[in-house]
Design a protein that fits this description.
It contains five helices and ten strands, in the order αααββββββββββαα. It has two domains: 2-68 and 77-110, Helix Hairpins, CATH 1.10.287; 122-280, Cupredoxins -  blue copper proteins (Immunoglobulin-like, Sandwich), CATH 2.60.40.420. 39% of the residues lie in helices and 19% in strands.
Length: 291
């Protein structure tokens, strides 16, 4: 009965993987690197299932076939040299194969792909060259967004879409990150205070945000949609509220969203400048409160 239950669980995992989606293996479906990470986990999982069934099946068979019986005397043997060498070599072959597959996949997981047709173009503001730590193959347009972590909110700065050389006027959003579809998006992940961890499960693995240092990752989303995540590193009492949402829009809709964001930021800056000018005109105690 125990063996039948184990085989039933294995069959369910193999023939109905969607039922166990995101439970045993990582979430995926939003970006090529997330899919490749999930595929690597799947390969390891299925190999582990085969090894588990083989070892436990042999163990159960041995316990039942050679169990103690009245009048039976166990044969005392030193061991089976061929069998011992066989399972040692077999285990080594499995480990070597998994290592080769893992290192073969790492390059494609780490290297951003080219943007797809229909993505953001250079005329829309996408970059062709940059000094970023990771970039797609030379000549492929992409965009760079700075993910700025702080207690307890994510700030997203759309680098290169402002007018000033120092990028101080680049548009930005909090909590909600907007990206164009079919476009390789390179993320520069930094922190303003403590260590955080950027993690949108459907779009790739976790990336730490470390003060004074930039880490890099990327994703490319094929279809419009929303993807949710959170800080995956305990960063203080507000850690549980440090969530993020990524919304993928068609390039032209994304550009309209970005222009609306820029207009809103200009209005806000103009209002702040007018308020500061009014305060600077005060005299007496008012001037002391606003030196």
């Amino acid at each position: 009965m125990t063996l039948l239950c184990a085989l039933a669980l294995v069959a369910a995992a193999v023939f109905a993987p969607d039922a166990f989606a995101n439970l045993i293996t990582p979430a995926s479906g939003g970006s090529p690197n997330a899919n490749q990470i999930a595929n690597l986990y799947d390969i390891t999982l299925y190999v582990a299932i085969v090894v588990f069934v083989g070892v436990e099946g042999t163990l159960l068979y041995t316990l039942l076939r050679f169990r103690k019986r009245k009048g039976r005397v166990a044969v005392q043997i030193h061991g089976n040299t061929r069998l011992e060498i066989g399972w040692t070599v077999g285990a080594a072959v499995v480990l070597i194969a998994l290592a080769v597959i893992t290192f073969a996949e790492l390059h494609s997981i780490r290297t951003p792909p080219v943007s797809s047709p229909g993505g953001l173009s250079v005329s829309d503001g996408a970059e062709l060259t940059s000094s970023d730590a990771i970039t797609p193959p030379k000549g492929s347009p992409y965009m760079t967004i700075q993910v700025n972590a702080r207690q307890f909110v994510w700030q997203f700065v759309y680098l290169g879409f402002g007018k000033q050389v120092d990028q101080l006027d680049d548009p930005y959003t909090y909590y909600h990150l907007y990206v164009p579809t079919n476009t390789t998006v390179v993320l520069k992940v930094v922190s303003q205070d403590v260590v955080h961890s950027w993690w949108i499960p459907d779009l790739g693995g976790k990336v730490q945000a470390v003060p004074g240092y930039a880490n890099w990752t990327y994703f490319k989303i094929a279809k419009p949609g929303n993807y949710f995540g959170q800080c995956a590193f305990l960063c203080g009492e507000g850690h549980a509220t440090m969530r993020a949402e990524v919304t993928a829009l068609p390039p032209q809709q994304w550009l309209a969203k970005l222009h609306a964001l820029e207009a809103g930021l200009k209005v806000g800056k103009a209002g702040g400048a007018a308020g500061r000018a009014a305060l600077n005109q005060r005299t007496g105690s008012g001037a002391v409160e606003n030196p």
